[in-house]
Predict the 3D structure of the following.
Amino acid sequence: MDVLFPSQKLQRQLSMQRDLQRQWGKEGAKRITARLQQLAAAVTLEDMRQLPGRCHELTGPRAGELAIDLHQGYRLVFRPTENPPPSREDGGLDWRRVDSVTVIEIVDYH
């Protein structure tokens, strides 16, 4: 799956291991790197349902976004790159047709 970023700054921050460890600690950096690698290795978003990390759709003001658990309450938040995202007949997101995501942020939104 294609993993895109809204800015080069965010892409650099999430790809430099030293910077990740400085900001998120060793375990946080390890989880961030693993989740990004899992996204990149997936063929479609559907593949993420079977992996650890509880990939899930968000609701309310964050509807249209998805998240994967990281470390200590933090989540990797992303959205399907295609606009509008592929949908099923019932209107929900069709995870089987999402083959590109854009990483938005790492945040503890609780």
Summary: The mean pLDDT is 93.
